[in-house]
Design goal:
Number of helices: 4
Helix content: over 70%
Strand content: under 5%
Order of helices and strands: HHHH
Shape: rod-shaped
Distance between the termini: 90 Å
Length: 184
């Protein structure tokens, strides 16, 4: 009779061990799968940030550059008018126009900022692209960990292949190997 208890105890231990192994494997697969989904969501969020941010920054830079161009053109044209002055009255009139144009230019836009705007735009663009690159890398790392887990020897036998299918890492779009051009 003692022997039957030992056999039942061994069978029970094997069943308990198998159940705990499956339980642990299943829960880890779920956790890793959710991690992959989270990382992909982060990639999508970085894409959305780029879509929201870059066009607005570009329009700001373009607007600032156009405003400065207009101011500088007006000041340059006003200064060039002195050369065409024939009489002292023309010279005096042109001098007043120049002073007015220069005063308006300084009041409306005291400093030339377009170069700094372009530099800031470049920094934002680089920062955003680096953030997207990092999110893609984290996504691919989570895919690797997930795929390694579900393809393990025991996990492959126990886990449902339809529920825990192998995932593909991030793949660049066709033509992504060529550098894009930014047009102003």
């Amino acid at each position: 009779m003692k022997r039957s208890y030992v056999v039942l105890g061994v069978i029970g231990a094997i069943i308990l061990f198998a159940f705990l192994g499956y339980y642990n494997s299943y829960n880890k697969a779920v956790k890793l799968q959710e991690g992959v989904d989270e990382k992909w969501g982060n990639v999508q969020s970085a894409y959305q940030k780029r879509l929201d941010l870059i066009p607005n920054l570009l329009n700001t830079v373009k607007g600032g550059a156009a405003n400065e161009k207009e101011i500088l053109t007006n000041v340059t044209q006003a200064r060039a008018g002195i050369v065409g002055a024939k009489t002292p009255e023309d010279l005096e009139l042109m001098g007043r126009k120049i002073n007015t144009a220069i005063n308006l230019a300084y009041e409306a836009y005291p400093n030339i900022q377009s170069t700094k705007l372009f530099q800031d735009f470049q920094k934002q663009l680089e920062s955003t692209e680096n953030e997207i690159k990092r999110e893609r890398e984290l996504y691919n790392e989570s895919i690797k960990e997930y795929n390694t887990h579900i393809r393990g020897f025991f996990n492959r036998m126990f886990l449902n292949k339809e529920e825990f299918s192998k995932k593909e890492g991030f793949k660049a779009a066709t033509g992504a190997d060529k550098a894009p051009s930014v047009k102003f």
